């Protein structure tokens, strides 16, 4: 059987906020993809920030296992770039291509792609392909179309990264100013305008995806191409991105194409970005590399089981600053633990925005954060009520505490031994800073300050 082409489309900061997952927005291209493919309604990334999330997607490992405990453009890196999906596919004869955003390496050559395009212009002093680049959707679509119109002779893996819906947003459509901000944001004129900017960016993303899918059909490649769409993590608003809530970890995940990914089906089992790599291995009938920590989605797809995972795990280490957290999610329960002694919000780990300004002005910096949180995801899906002190849930709490510790031990989580140092040469924020753009320190300077 001829091996399928693989087109992996990934966006920035979109989470699940798309039409096929029930939101009142217009994303017709993604809606068409879902109606023709298979949607996983409860898909999650492994970390609610860019590089660690993408590391989970592309290596099939948790950030603390693959080494990506912070942001690549600040110097964090994978332990072994040969564990990237592109290398495994190259070994079995795939031509590999990267178009657009990647956010896993300051030097894109480390990722092993045969073909590179629309990476943007490197800032002074940075190598080509640096993750600081932000190619626009128009350039990404053109480069993807050029590739699809002149495809290689062998099957290909095309990683297509859109910068949208990352900040800064394009000017909003005035009609969008009548939108409703995402929970947990209050409905104010500033948050509506902020949300309208997100929706404008989402429209650009969907139009770009539409153009690429049209090109795929026009070139005759559609029938033998597995299209996968996902986002790295949740949207860039306070209480979402960089939090271990479902709004931070929840992502869209849609497959369409060979292998049974058709029919407009919707699957409700909780699944992880870690499952992508083993799924492709099983679909292509190749051995799974020993480092993979996820499971193949094919048994779910074929109706051979109802659930793949009893529990899924999430983590935060560094975004701007050190803020160590771990989470365990079952179908019913969410348990989150903060590991540092700090109990105030780490403000610089949330991107600057009108929505953040509202929180800053409304007392957010003075909030006291709980060391542990327990949420009933069926009775409290917004994760508002912390049940840690509720004696009626003490048995569940103890089980989840033990489950998280077992997982940390089994995955050799270095957090069990205390703070995970930032690698030499990386840049971090002081946790007391307000904005991610201020008070940048080298890892060495930060270590001296907190020795």
Short description, anyone?
The chain has 451 residues and is of the alpha/beta class. It has 12 helices and 15 strands.
Describe this structure in words.
This protein has 451 residues and is an alpha/beta fold. The chain has two domains: 5-301, Alkaline Phosphatase, subunit A; 312-449, Arylsulfatase, C-terminal domain. It is 27% helix and 18% strand. The protein is built from twelve helices and 15 strands. It has helices spanning 28-36, 50-59, 63-66, 85-91, 137-149, 189-218, 246-249, 276-283, 298-301, 354-361, 394-410, 443-449; strands at residues 5-11, 38-44, 95-100, 115-117, 156-161, 225-231, 250-251, 253-256, 265-272, 312-318, 322-329, 333-338, 372-376, 427-429, 440-442. Strands 1, 2, 3, 4, 5, 6, 7, 8 and 9 form a nine-stranded mixed β-sheet that branches. Strand 10 (312-318) and strand 11 form a beta hairpin. Helix 5 packs parallel to helix 6 (189-218).
Keywords, please?
27% helix, 2 domains, Arylsulfatase, C-terminal domain, single chain, globular, Alkaline Phosphatase, subunit A, four-stranded antiparallel sheet, 15 strands, 451 residues, 12 helices, alpha/beta, nine-stranded mixed sheet
- Strand pairing plus helix content: what structural class? alpha/beta
- Into how many domains do the coordinates divide? 2
Q: What is the CATH top level name of the largest domain?
A: Alpha Beta
Mean pLDDT, nearest integer?
Answer: 94
Main beta sheet: 9 strands, mixed
Radius of gyration over C-alpha positions, nearest whole angstrom: 21 Å
What is the global morphology?
Answer: globular
Strand content: 15-25%
Measured as a percent range, the helix fraction is 25-40%
Low-pLDDT residue spans = 123-132
Number of strands: 15
Count of alpha/pi helices: 12
CATH architecture of the largest domain: 3-Layer(aba) Sandwich
Instruction: Name the CATH superfamily assignment of the largest domain.
Output: Alkaline Phosphatase, subunit A
The SSE order reads: EHEHHHEEHEHEHEEEHHEEEHEHEEH
Find the CATH topology of the largest domain: Alkaline Phosphatase, subunit A
* N- to C-terminal distance: 59 Å
């Amino acid at each position: 059987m001829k091996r399928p082409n693989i087109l992996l489309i990934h966006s920035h900061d979109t989470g699940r906020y798309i039409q096929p997952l029930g939101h009142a927005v217009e994303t017709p291209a993604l809606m068409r993809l879902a109606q023709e493919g298979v949607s996983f309604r409860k898909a999650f990334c492994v970390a609610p920030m860019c590089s660690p999330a993408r590391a989970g997607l592309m290596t099939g490992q948790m950030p603390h296992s693959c080494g990506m405990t912070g942001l690549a453009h600040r110097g964090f890196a994978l332990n072994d770039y040969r564990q990237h999906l592109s290398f495994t596919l190259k070994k079995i004869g795939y031509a590999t291509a990267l178009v657009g955003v990647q956010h896993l390496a300051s030097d894109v050559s480390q990722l092993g792609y045969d073909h590179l395009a629309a990476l943007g212009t490197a800032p002074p002093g940075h190598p080509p392909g640096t993750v600081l680049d932000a190619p626009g959707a128009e350039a990404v679509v053109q480069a993807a179309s050029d590739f699809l119109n002149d495809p290689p002779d062998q099957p290909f893996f095309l990683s297509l990264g859109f910068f949208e819906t990352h900040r800064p947003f394009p000017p909003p459509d005035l009609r969008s100013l009548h939108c409703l901000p995402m929970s947990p944001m209050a409905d104010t004129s500033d948050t509506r305008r902020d949300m309208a900017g997100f929706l404008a960016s989402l429209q650009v993303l969907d139009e770009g995806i539409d153009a690429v899918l049209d090109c795929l059909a026009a070139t005759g490649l559609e029938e033998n191409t597995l299209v996968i769409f996902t986002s790295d993590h949740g949207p860039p608003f306070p209480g979402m991105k960089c939090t271990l809530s479902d709004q931070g970890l929840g992502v869209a995940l849609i497959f369409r194409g060979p292998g049974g990914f058709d029919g407009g089906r919707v699957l409700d089992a909780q699944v992880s970005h870690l499952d992508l790599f083993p799924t492709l291995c099983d679909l292509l009938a190749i051995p799974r590399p020993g480092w993979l920590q996820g499971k193949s989605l094919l048994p779910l797809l074929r109706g051979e089981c109802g659930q793949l995972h009893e529990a899924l795990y999430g983590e935060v280490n560094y975004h701007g600053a050190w803020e160590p957290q771990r989470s365990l999610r079952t179908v019913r329960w969410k348990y989150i633990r903060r590991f540092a002694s700090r109990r105030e919000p780490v403000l610089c780990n949330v991107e600057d925005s009108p929505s953040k300004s509202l929180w800053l002005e409304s007392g957010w910096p003075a909030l006291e954060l709980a060391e542990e949180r327990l949420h009933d995801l069926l009775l409290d899906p917004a994760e508002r009520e912390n049940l840690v002190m509720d004696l009626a849930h003490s048995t569940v709490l103890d089980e989840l505490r033990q489950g998280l510790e077992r997982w940390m031990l089994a995955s050799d989580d270095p957090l069990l031994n205390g703070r995970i140092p930032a690698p030499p040469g990386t840049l971090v924020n002081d946790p007391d800073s307000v904005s991610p753009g201020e008070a940048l320190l080298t890892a060495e300077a930060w270590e001296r300050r907190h020795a």
